[in-house]
Amino acid sequence: MMNLSALKIDPEFQGKIPPLTFEELNQLEANILRDGRIINPIIVWEGLIVDGHNRFIIAKKHPEIPFTVHETEFANRYEAIIWICKNQLGRRNLTPEQKKYLIGKQYEAEKCVNGGDRKSPAAKSGGHFDHLIKPEKTRERIARETNTTDSFVRRAEHFAKGVDVAEEAVPGTRQKVLSGEVKPTAAEIASVARAPPEERPALVAEICKPKPPKPPAQKQKAPQP
Fold first, then answer.
1. What is the helix (H) or strand (E) element at residue 51, kind and residue range?
2. Phi and psi at residue 71, to the nearest 5°
3. Of 177, 190, 217, nearest in space to 15 by CA
């Protein structure tokens, strides 16, 4: 069994994983204590946790509980992020905001991976075959895999970038947005991303203000006969 001290939490990786609620975390801990072991392995890459952050926290809290570690291989951090996003998108209890964020981050990471491939000698030497087989665009493939649309994936990328910028300006904002506690519009998120760094905290604070409830729609009276 790998020593817990050898495992590290990477903030960028952890930020892609929707956190459990207080009740869900307590239930997970209760289940582990009941079973007497942590059933699912903690998955790591080069000592960094890519899945199992909550299990790791519980293992540190209860060092007597046995656990397992599964080491996996990725070519780089982008591939690790792609795996994390795909793995989390397989969950059933995601909020719409969490799904949109994960799709955006997957697309962003895949573009980085594909961009590197296009610059490689092998990619350049194969360019004269492009007219024979037109490869499926990354955005189109992700849309197909996630049962969304090409335009949704593009919007998801902008959304994810805006959420990350808001998180940098005011830590804790990402969780509020992805949990649905705060529901900024696409324009509001975009305004944060475009603003100078010194103006972002005020914009985020404005976005996070409770919005007044919409007045109920008035029923139209039926015309008198």
1. strand 48-51
2. -90, 130
3. 177
